[in-house]
Amino acid sequence: MQRFLAAAGAALSLCAQAGPMGFKGSTMVMGDFGPNWQEAWVNYALTPRDALGVGTLTMRSDNHRLKREAMEVNATRLLARWNLPEAQANLWLVAGLGTLTGNDWVGSRTLVAPGVQADYETTRVYLSANTRLYRATGVKHDYASVRAGFSFYATDYDETQPWLVLEARRMQGLSDKTEITPMLRLINPRYFVELGVNQMRQARFNLMYIL
Amino acid sequence: MNSNTLTNTLKFIAINAIFSGAIGHMNAASAAESVKATVNGMVCAFCAQGIEKGLTALPSTKAVFVDLKNKVVAVESKDGQKPDLQAIRHEITEAGFDVVKLEAVPRSVAEIRADFKGKK
Q1: Rounded CA gap, A68 and A136, in Å?
Q2: Sign of the CA dihedral A172, A173, A176, A180?
Q3: What is the model's pTM?
Q4: B77 and B54 belong to one structural domain
Q5: CB B110 within 8 A of CB B91
């Protein structure tokens, strides 16, 4: 279950730097892929501050015994943005509603998943924190992650900028482990990707792309 | 026509051609008109692509230049078209950023780009 919730929350956290939605009228695809979870989101920005989307997630436990599948519709709202001369800070709200199935129960359960995220970034430094609650009948877990990163050097707009980002994430009530993942992030006007390996030597690949 | 006269005539034609070409080039350069915007919050290329796409879609736009380091967005208008300052401000704002200064400059986007590249 920890991996499941981690994956579900990752869609929010991976988007921290670029925001969990694109510009008005854009469709953004987001993915988070590892051996124990595969997740994909797509949302459409109705306004500069609002997006509606759908997401799917498949997850399995470390011992491969448990499997969870979630489908959700979600709304993303930019609650506040501070555009500073050398930085940008944001406060986001994400609300998800969907179904959750598992191989250790029959049928599906209604999933409610509200979350908030705060981020601050410059062209060289990046910080974010987010939390998301995952609630279903018999399922009550809170997810939280923090990220900090820096870019190796500044680049022009049309160049690819490499970053080193360190993420720590944790699922309350499911595990006493805090997952630590250093990631190489590449940002370009066309795409946003992250490649990392956590302390359990599990590879991870994140992607954002605006259609 | 003796050889001196012929030589002088050819020199005159050559000099004229050179100068008229140069003047013509200068006129072409100064004819370009762009809008240079100073934008707050523009720190990430992936996030700023909305600015480029929005401005490129404007009917009067010929070229767009985004510079994250200097927080500048430049938009060159098509020949014979006046830049629409309101539309440019609107597109940048809709992309999620704040325009703190807008100015028309008699430069092409290529020249503005070269100016900033030269500053490095």
Answers
A1: 13
A2: negative
A3: 0.80
A4: yes
A5: no
d(CA A97, CA A84): 34
pLDDT tens digits for range A177-208? 788 999 999 998 888 999 999 998 999 999 99
ipTM for this prediction? 0.79
Q: What would the pLDDT profile of B60-104 be if each residue is shown by its tens digit?
A: 899 999 999 899 999 999 888 888 899 999 999 999 999 999 999
Distance between CA atoms of residues A183 and A84, nearest Å: 27
B77: phi then psi, degrees, rounded to nearest 5: -85, 155
Which chain B residues touch A123 with a CB distance below 8 Å?
A: 43-44, 68-69
Contact list in B for residue A122 (CB cut-off 8 A) is 43
CATH number of A2-210, picked from 3.40.50.1820, 3.20.20.110, 3.40.50.2300, 2.40.160.40: 2.40.160.40
Q: How far is B105 from chain A (nearest CA, A)?
A: 21
How many independent structural domains does chain B possess? 2
